[in-house]
Design a protein that fits this description.
heterodimer; A: about 120 residues; alpha+beta; 4 helices; about 60% helix; globular; B: about 900 residues; 4 domains; 11-stranded mixed β-sheet; 6-stranded mixed beta barrel; 26 helices; about 50% helix
Chain lengths: ~120, ~900
């Protein structure tokens, strides 16, 4: 709880979800858990925004879903990446990479310039 | 909703539910595993996850929603809301049903008469042709004119002339007289409708002394001949003559020129046009079908040219009967037959549109008031993320649902309304048979309903979507409530203004009718029974037999107890009929006075009608066939023609003698008061009277006028039996009291007035309800303020005045705006006004006083409630 939390920039949640799903078919709760674990609690996705986002991605055919049993034998809705989803993820990651490098660069320069 | 599975994808809903609960259960399980107590875990998950319903909503919203699904949701939501407010829903629906029903009913009456083409192929090419008299006023064409035009004109595909024909079929218990028409051979071809059985009239049928043939309407054929399919070629007896049935018209045939006509026979006038014959009588109506490449104007120019040359060829004929024509008039048949009712119908249409507007304003007002009360609900939904469009859509769905139900009820109201309209409709309304609720009326009702739904829903929808959630939720109500109040006040002002326009219209019509009935018709209309007696049969071809029948009939009628006087006349005032003839005055030798109303009467006519004698003597039994012809003239004609001398003893020629130097003179023996013949408003008062036996032509139908001691209508059976005691085969028709004829002569105005009164009262009530509603709402909101005022020493009277002033200000503004509207709108009814200016101050002041009074009453109740406020209670509550 001590670690600072971030608001995700617009559109980033979609990318994070796609990446998580890219690792293999997974249900919504697991996506939320994984995002939290990997980001060391920096990213917390409330169900209130996760599920609408999942449904949106499903509607855009970036994800497909099917009902399967979990290891504990419960029915859950598992999401899987589609080919379109993979392409979208790659394009999205690339542009995010570029953006973050550029932003980092500018922020770093600004620091040097101030000295 | 099982029957509409695609409207509600239950699987999708269930899956959404399962997916979310799986998430929650897993999370709770994880927490429990890490040592949290289960109920704590659940609480924390709920906080973390947010409201499940809202999440679901958001998921639904990203789903590519089926339009039907969301619409159905909106409608369900709207339905629940209406159910929660049954009072509001009922008032709104009833108001809407009234407005939509009234509009639909009026539309269904006006549509076939004014808007739909006549029920004939290429009806736009059908025209009516009239002669213009010397002074340029239209008059009916003669057969001579028709013949000349038909032979020489190239503008028409077909032309025809028609005149009424009322043959009697004798034999059954009571003689039955039919309404029919005598027509020239091309009549049905001109209209473009041919018999469904048998054949149409051909030229040989329409020869002078041609065969007796008849075409029957489908209705008569079924009624009287049981639809006998072998009837063609059979003979029927009409007026003692045998007629061969040659055709049956289709059941769809609508005879707009004489809607009650059920049989048709050829005219069979004499084409050699003898100068004294009926061929020169101005008693025909002429219709023509223009060629597709000829305009009415071109046709008129051509006909006028032909007529001028005809007037030279037949100088003598025209001279004896009505004088040289001045030209022709060619008007669309539809315009011609609807001329009388058009102003009334348009005015009524305008009035009902005003009513509909008021209804819209009223329902909008109700909706705005309600959405003001639901403001916090809207704000909450907006705060929870409901999109603005969704809010607008839901509000619109509600008003549309409301209007749809109102519209369905409205169609029922409309059905009743059509029946009421037909019952009220003026005598002789053209195309009355075509007035019904049909598919075009339903389409109109549907259109109006959806339009109204959008109109009334728009204002509240926009308001709902504009409300700022922060403000509304904090309930710092005053500012936003102010916004609602301003809207509602504007609506009330509109209502008052519209009501004023309607009421002024009703007031002006009322004043006109009052003025009309104050007109002296020239006789005493009370206790006067009238009916038409027709002699029928070959035996009456002998003049003396005819005279004996009428004399005996009069004697029998006079014996009926309760009858004080009785007489016959050839033309009954205000019956719709009249006859116009020329008179040649010896003192004005070269001037044949045109267009005098002509009456052939029995001598007691003047005493019976109580038409006053102004000079000379009345007609008496001595004025009989063989004696020198005695003539009475009307007072205004006497004054005009003999301004400085007495007309008594002046010599004139009338009837067949006009223009014939070899005929003997008749003498003016007396002057009688003017009588209104065609209408109370038309003062064509030139008239002359002779006895029936001294008139040159035979009128087969005579109107009997009977003055009675008590109720005139009650004597009808006794009088009828008295006539039948003389000859049981004589049909008696058109029985009416003179007072009824008087009222009927103003039927169009009366019709318009009745509807304006009804609509005006509805408008007044709606406006009053509007004012009451707004003031009540305002008082409820101002309770704390009123409490403070009272606490600070305002008396009850002060509070009363405060609220009353608020209400009356609205009325005042509405009245001012409405006055402008009324002045403009009164132009529409100007042709129906009589003896009253459309700026008549009495009407305007009266209406303003009425509106002020009614709105005063509407203001009083909320004001009184405010005045009774106990400051200690309201202040504590506030």
């Amino acid at each position: 709880m001590a670690s600072p939390k971030c608001d995700l920039p617009q559109g980033t949640l979609d990318l994070l979800i796609l990446k998580t799903v890219a690792l293999g078919p997974v249900h919504g709760y697991a996506i939320a858990q994984r995002l939290q674990q990997i980001s060391c609690d920096v990213v917390q996705v409330p169900g209130g925004s996760l599920y609408p986002a999942l449904h949106r991605l499903e509607n855009r055919r970036l994800l497909v879903a099917e009902w399967r049993q979990t290891e504990t034998g419960r029915d859950a809705k598992f999401y899987r990446l589609t080919r379109r989803g993979r392409a979208h993820l790659e394009a999205g990651s690339a542009s995010w990479q570029r953006l973050s490098e550029t932003v980092g660069l500018i922020l770093g320069m600004a620091e040097e310039g101030a000295q | 909703m099982k029957w509409l599975p695609w409207l509600r994808p239950d699987d999708q809903e269930a899956n959404l539910e399962r997916e979310l609960s799986f998430h929650i259960e897993e999370r709770v399980a994880d927490m429990v595993r890490s040592g949290v107590r289960e109920e704590d875990a659940r609480r924390r998950v709920r906080l973390e996850f947010g409201a499940a319903e809202q999440v679901k909503d958001e998921c639904r919203e990203v789903r590519p929603a089926h339009w039907a699904e969301t619409s159905l949701q909106d409608i369900r939501y709207a339905w629940r809301n209406l159910r929660r407010n049954p009072g509001f829903a009922a008032v709104a629906m009833a108001t809407l049903a009234l407005g939509i029903g009234a509009t639909t009913a009026v539309f269904s009456a006006v549509n076939p008469i004014l808007f739909q083409p006549l029920p004939y192929p290429h009806a736009g090419r059908l025209v009516m042709v009239q002669e213009l008299g010397r002074n340029g006023s239209p008059r009916r064409p003669t057969f001579a004119t028709f013949l000349g035009l038909a032979v020489n004109s190239h503008s028409f595909d077909a032309m025809a002339v028609i005149k009424p024909w009322r043959p009697t079929m004798v034999g059954s218990a009571q003689p039955e007289r039919f309404e029919g028409q005598q027509v020239s051979a091309g009549y049905f071809r001109t209209l473009g409708v041919l018999p469904s059985m048998g054949r149409d009239f051909q030229a040989p049928d329409d020869q002078f002394h041609g065969p007796n043939v008849v075409v029957l309407s489908d209705r008569l054929w079924r009624r009287r001949f049981a639809g006998d399919s072998t009837i063609i070629g059979k003979q029927v007896r009409l007026d003692d003559y045998l007629f061969t049935v040659i055709g049956i018209m289709p059941s769809s045939f609508e005879n707009v020129l004489a809607p009650s006509a059920e049989l048709w026979a050829p005219l069979q006038y004499n084409p050699s046009l003898p100068t004294e014959g009926r061929e020169w009588g101005h008693h025909l109506r002429m219709v023509g079908r223009l060629r597709s490449d000829v305009s009415a104007n071109q046709a008129r120019n051509e006909l006028t040219g032909i007529l001028h040359s005809l007037a030279q060829t037949y100088a003598k004929g025209y001279e004896c009967c009505g004088g040289v024509p001045n030209g022709t008039a060619v008007d669309r048949l539809q315009d011609e037959i609807t001329r009388g009712v058009k102003p009334a119908l348009l005015a009524i249409l305008g009035a009902v549109v005003l009513v509909l507007l008021i209804v819209c304003v009223n329902v909008t007002n109700l909706l705005v008031a309600r959405s003001a009360r639901r403001r916090s609900e809207f704000a909450l939904r907006a705060a929870l993320g409901a999109g603005r469009t969704r809010l607008i859509r839901q509000t619109l769905a509600e008003s549309l649902l409301l209007t749809a139900i109102g519209g369905v009820l409205g169609m029922a109201v409309g059905e009743l309304g059509v029946r009421a309209l037909l019952a009220l409709s003026p005598f002789g309304l053209p195309r009355a048979d075509a007035i019904r609720v049909d598919s075009s009326v339903y389409a109109f009702g549907l259109g109006i309903t959806s339009l109204v739904g959008f109109v009334v829903g728009l204002v509240p929808a926009l308001q709902a979507s504009h409300s700022d959630p922060h403000d509304a939720l904090r309930q710092s109500s005053r500012t936003t409530t102010g916004g609602h109040q301003v809207t509602r006040r504007m609506l009330v002002v509109t209502e008052v203004a519209l009501a004023l326009v309607l009421l002024v219209g009703a007031g002006l019509l009322l004043r006109s009718i009052e003025n009309l009935f104050a007109i002296d018709p020239g006789f005493d209309s009370t206790h006067l029974l009238t009916m038409q007696v027709q002699e029928s049969g070959r035996r009456f071809n002998d003049d003396s037999v005819r005279a004996r029948f009428f004399t005996q009939a009069l004697e029998e009628v006079r014996k009926v107890p309760g009858v004080t006087a009785a007489a016959f006349t050839s033309q009954l005032p205000l019956s719709g009929d009249f006859a116009v003839y020329n008179m040649q005055l010896e003192s004005h030798r070269n001037d044949n006075s045109e267009g005098l109303l002509q009456y052939a009467v029995s001598p007691a006519y003047f005493d019976t009608m109580k038409i006053p004698l102004k000079g000379g003597r009345m007609l008496d039994e001595g004025d009989r066939a063989g004696a020198p012809t005695a003539v009475l003239i009307s007072e205004s004609f006497a004054r005009r023609k003999f301004p400085n001398q007495t007309p008594i003893g002046q010599r004139v020629r009338v009837g067949a003698g006009v223009g014939h130097a070899d005929r003997s003179w008749a003498t003016i023996v007396g002057v009688v008061g003017d009588v209104k013949q065609t209408s109370l408003t038309i003062s064509a008062s030139d008239a002359f009277y002779t006895t029936m036996t001294q008139w040159d032509w035979v009128d087969h139908a005579q109107s009997l006028v009977v003055r009675t001691r008590g109720d005139a209508a009650a004597l009808t059976p006794a009088i009828r039996n008295a006539i039948w005691s003389v000859d049981k085969d004589q049909p008696i028709i058109r029985i009416a009291t003179m007072d009824a004829l008087l009222a009927r002569s103003q039927a169009e105005r009366h019709f318009a007035l009745t509807l304006f009164e009804v609509f005006g009262i509805v408008a007044l009530i709606l406006a009053a309800v509007g004012i009451y509603g707004v003031l009540s709402g305002s008082v409820a909101e101002r309770m704390p303020e009123i409490g403070v005022r009272t606490a600070l020493g305002a008396s009850r009277r002060d509070i009363l005045v405060l609220i009353l002033r608020q209400g009356m200000t609205l009325t005042g503004i509405g009245v001012v705006i409405g006055l402008g509207g009324a002045v403009t709108a009164s132009q529409v009814i100007i042709s129906m006004l009589y003896g009253v200016s459309r700026f008549d101050p009495v009407t305007y002041f009266g209406v303003i006083a009425l509106l002020a009074g009614v709105s005063g009453i509407a203001c009083w109740m909320p004001a009184w409630r405010a005045a009774k406020v106990d400051p200690s209670i309201t202040l504590r509550a506030g």
